[in-house]
Structure formats: C-alpha cells, structure tokens
Amino acid sequence: MTDGLSGFDVLVIGGGNAAMAAALSAREGGATVLVLESAPKDFRAGNSRHTRDLRCMHDAPTPVMSGAYTEDEFYKDILSVTGGKTDEKLARMTIRASTECTEWMKQYGVRFQHALGGTLQLGRTNAFFLGGGKAMMNSYYAAAEKRDIKVVYDAEVVDLDVVDGEFRSATVLIGGRTVKVSAKAVVAASGGFEANLEWLKEAWGPIADNFLIRGTPYNKGKVLKRLLALGVDSVGDAKAAHMVAIDARAPKFDGGIVTRLDCVSLGIVVNNKGERFYDEGEDFWPKRYAIWGRLVAEQPDQIGHCIIDSKAMGQFMPSVFPPLEAQSIGELAKLMMLPVDAVEATVKAYNAAVQPGTFNHETLDDCKTVGLHPEKTHWALRIDKPPFYAYGLRPGLTFTYLGVKVNERAMALMKGGGRSRNIFAAGEIMVGNVLGKGYAAGIGVTVGTVFGRIAGREAALEALNCEDRVVAKEEVAHYAAS
C-alpha cells in the first residue's frame, strides 16, 4: 500500500473540491501528482460531497445562470456578509476568476443544471451541479485516474517537515504504518478543524458540545495546526466559522445539506424561553442563512425553534425530518416543551405588530412589523392559519475560517512578512483570506475551485522550475489587477 509514494513533483493533501482542482491543475502543468485523502474511499471528498453549487460572476446569461451578476455586485455581497473582513485584492481576484470555473469544470466531466427559479434567489448568481457535490467529485476522481494522478485513501498526514519555509516531506499514517512522503512542492487543501471537538471547545468553550458538524468527521485540522506551528502566518480567528441553523434532530456528523432549515424567513424563531431574538426577515435567505447558526449558539442550551403556519408550507425547501404539528399554538408549545404562556404571548404580540403589505418572497417586500423588538423587516405574515408547525434548530458547523495566509499565487506566507518557497494552500484551509466572517451561498466552492487551480498550477511550476513561471504570474496578475 505504501510502495510508490516517492518521486512525485506535487503532493496534494486533501481530497475535496480544492484538492482535486489543484491536482488536475498541477497535472495540466505537466507535474506528476500524489493525492493523500485521510478518509476511506467511500467517504472521500470531505465537505465537497455535500455541496450543490458555486457562485459565479457573469455579465450576461449563461447556459446555467440567468441574467447578469457583475463583479461589483458580487463584491458588495461579500462585503455584506463579511462586514468588510476580507482581503479585497484576493476577493476581487476570486470573483474575476470565477467566470471561468464552470467551463473548466465541464472539461473534467462536471455537469450543471439549467438556471433555477423560485424562492432560492440563486438562479442568477449560482451554478448548480447536476447530481450535487458527490457527482461533481466522482467526475473529478474519474478524471484524475485517467490522467495518472495517484490517490491514496485512509492516508492521514500527521506531521510536516518544513525548514525555513521549504516543504521537504510529510509523515503519513497509512494502514497502521508511518511513511515519509517527499515531493518538490505541496498543496495543503485539507479543510478546517470543524471535526476536532477538542479544538472547538478551546475556541468556544463548553457550548461547543451542542454543535452539530454538518460535514465530514475527517477534517481534524492537523495539517493546519502544524503549518501554523512551523511559522506559516495565520488569517482569521478560531471562532470564525460557517455555521447555520440546522434541524436539531440531525446527526452529530455528516448530516449534510438536507438537514438545513430554510423556513426561518417565513415565520418566527424563539429560544427556550419562548422569546424571539433576531429579525427573521433581514435579507434574502442565501445571504443571511449563515448567521443563524451563531445566533442559535448564543441562546440558552444552544437551541432555537422556528414556528410557521400552513401559509408557509410548500414555500421553502423542506428538511429531511418532518415538523412538529398542532392545531393551536399552545399545543405546539407543549410539543416543543416550551413555556406555553410565553410562546402564546410571543405569537400574539407578533401577529398584532404585522402591518398590511404585499407578500413576495422573491423581493425585499413591504410585509413588516411595527412596535416589536426585534422587528421583522420583510416577509412578516401573521401566524394564524392552522395547523401550526415547528422545527427545532441547532448550530450546524460547516467549516472554520482560521487558516493560513496566502498571496495571489496561493503561496503560504510566513510570519514576519516572508513567504514559503514551495507551500501552497487552497480551499477551507485558506478561505479566511476572503471570508473573515459570514457566508454567501456557494462561495466556498468558488474559493476552493479558483485557488485550487492556482495552487496546482503554481506548485507544478515551482516543482518543475519552469521558465514559464513568469507567464503564470502574468495570468494571476490579470485577475489580481484592480
């Protein structure tokens, strides 16, 4: 199993979208490539197998996206969700390079759906994979096999040998044996540390015990932690994360996207005291859904409860689990095991504050409340048509933002202002350069694809010591230019 792991030009650590984009890109550049995936084959591809789309800039309709989504609008969306915590140069470079993503992915067998319509608000901004993220990743792995990219599963990188910013080898646990794997360049694309429960508790304290991990249990953050210990500069902080509100009945790990709840903007959310705590109609759901995980995490016992009525049913993507159902708010409160009087009072006050308006879930409509704290600013409809429904909400952690700092070549930067010589990074392990906080649907796959391609190409050039490196720099500069 451990034979034939020497002599490769580029080592890619990780097995998700960013890793395979890097591997394929490095192979395009003529490099020999080894991919180390810590998961078994049946669970390969990390969080990428749970994805379904990527966000792309385009100035006109495409076969898979409607309308136009300009650079400035895309960047405003990033500013909106991050509150300005982004590297503008790298963010705009990502946006510009996203125009090429779908066509590049199609070369490797990835197929896309036609542009979506309806309440998701994503048909104009996002391209959706036909068959979802698992189909995308299966296409990548099939393409890698055809191109003689070697993939080793159940291969956990437990240490790195880096001297003065130069990668020399990785220590890998394979089949119970420890193996040294050397390469001329390395791409770290092994994700964040969201599956490392002890590290989460170091950052968040005991409330982390109530977090559910939406994705792979294999993202332990060992490569990230080792790189930071070896002098690679960091970006972001340990509490920054893509965290959404998911069904409280989801499993501890790997529940995936089907456990997400998209009904919040159509109802109200209360905590264990039966009290509302945030504006459910602040903005379109694809831009604001990712704030709700942290909001729920800040509530007692890290749980919330979304309450809707019959008018809302059928207007959102349902969870994999059915809701609680009752003919009255009081009966529903009992099913939720919440104080009945408090829940009834909250719903009564909310209904009284709802103003007349024209409901339209595809616009920032004029259906709002007046006189509440907090107000509901859009899509406020009275909760008055039985049966009534409720979903329990828990913080669902997707990935963490603490990562390694990179430049426009995806090269890891060292503490003190220097740069590594042959260490590159892509995907969740460096997403904090673009997303300091918050999230907009599909942008994680975009960052992974763009920086995966750059990291793979640059690693190949570094490994092969090509004179073409100057050409690659000019290509990067095209996207990085202001």
Automatic annotation (TrEMBL):
Its cofactor is FAD. The keyword Oxidoreductase applies. Keywords: FAD, Flavoprotein, Oxidoreductase. GO terms for molecular function: oxidoreductase activity. Residues 9-436 form the FAD-dependent oxidoreductase 2 FAD-binding domain. InterPro entries: CobZ, FAD-dep_OxRdtase_2_FAD-bd, FAD-oxidoreductase_2, FAD/NAD-bd_sf, Succ_DH/fumarate_Rdtase_cat_sf. Gene3D superfamilies: FAD/NAD(P)-binding domain (3.50.50.60), Succinate dehydrogenase/fumarate reductase flavoprotein, catalytic domain (3.90.700.10). Signal peptide: none annotated. NCBIfam families: CobZ_N-term, PRK08274.1. This is Tricarballylate dehydrogenase. It comes from Silvibacterium bohemicum.
